[in-house]
Amino acid sequence: DAADYARVASARAILLSEQGPADKALAVLVRQMQQSKNEVVRHYAACALEDIGEKARGVLDAVKKAQSDKYEYVKRVTNRIVAKLDA
User: Fold this and answer.
1) d(Cα 82, Cα 14) in Å, to the nearest integer?
2) Residue 49: which residues within 8 A CB-CB, separation 6 or more?
3) Which end of the chain is less packed: N or C, by CB atoms within 10 Å?
4) DSSP state of 18
5) What 8-state DSSP symbol labels residue 68?
6) Spatial distance between the Cα atoms of 34 and 39, rounded to a whole number of angstroms
7) Are 26 and 14 in contact (CB under 8 A)?
């Protein structure tokens, strides 16, 4: 889909349902979390990564980089992910 939020929603659904290519879905979430110009989309992508829990371990380095995002809500979510997965 051309819309960032729709790509994030689709990737989240794939990962939560375990019905599709997880590696591609993770890549979509990371790309949107890092590159979207829309701060709400970056936050939504980070929330999706938090929702999938252990499945996000493979992209922990990308999550750590996003801890310095300029949007406070992205920082908060990524801090929680790192605290949980990097403990």
Assistant:
1) 22
2) 29, 30, 33, 56, 59, 63, 77, 81
3) C
4) T
5) T
6) 10
7) no
Cα–Cα distance, 49 to 2 (Å, whole number) = 21
Under the banding of pLDDT at 50, 70 and 90, the label for residue 49 is very high
| Residue 7: Cβ within 10 Å count | 19
How confident is the model at residue 66, as a pLDDT?
Answer: 97
Work out whether the CA dihedral 63, 68, 70, 72 comes out positive or negative: positive
Burial class of residue 37 (count of CB atoms within 10 Å of its CB; 0-12, 13-18, 19+): exposed
Q: Do 36 and 77 contact (CB within 8 A), yes or no?
A: no
> Residues for the chain: how many in total?
87
Give, rounded to a whole angstrom, the gap between the first and last alpha carbons of the chain.
Answer: 36
CA distances from residue 49 to 46, 76, 86 in whole angstroms, order as listed: 5, 13, 14
